[in-house]
Design goal:
single chain; 135 residues; alpha+beta; Pnp Oxidase, Chain A
Length: 135
């Protein structure tokens, strides 16, 4: 409701089925969500992923959101998944998040993905490294 201001949200994502990860984040979304309505007007977005499974945080029993744990930030444009990729997006999302199959169909769900333009890795307090998108 505040024009021009970003709106943060938590969305389920998948980069492919467990045996076929692609590195491309896919989302199952509804236009009834304010985040999606905003993205349809301005597709620029960022996505930050905490180090949930890394050795350092696990061995030292540190919360994955603690600044000592690495985090990856992806930036780019959110786009509707093209028709030829919808089946893969469906397999990606439903294999990792089976509950979405039960979400109400009346919400007009569809798939979006991020076309990644920039990748940043923060591996300690304030230290950020740019990583080539191809990597």
């Amino acid at each position: 409701q505040i024009q021009g201001m970003p709106y943060g949200n938590c969305l389920l994502l998948s980069d492919g089925p467990v045996n076929n990860s692609t590195g491309i984040p896919f989302f199952y979304v509804t236009p009834k969500d304010n985040t999606v309505a905003d993205l349809l007007k301005n597709p620029m977005a960022s996505l930050t992923l905490p180090e949930a499974d890394g050795n350092f945080c696990r061995k030292n029993v540190i919360d994955p959101e603690d600044p000592r744990c690495a985090r990856l930030t992806l930036m780019g444009q959110m786009v509707t998944v093209p028709l030829e990729e919808v089946e893969f997006a469906k397999q990606a999302m439903f294999s990792r998040h089976p509950v979405v199959r039960k979400w109400p169909r009346s919400y007009e769900w569809f798939f979006m993905k991020m076309n990644i333009e920039h990748v940043w890795l923060q591996s300690w307090y304030g230290e950020v490294s740019a990583i080539a998108v191809e990597e």
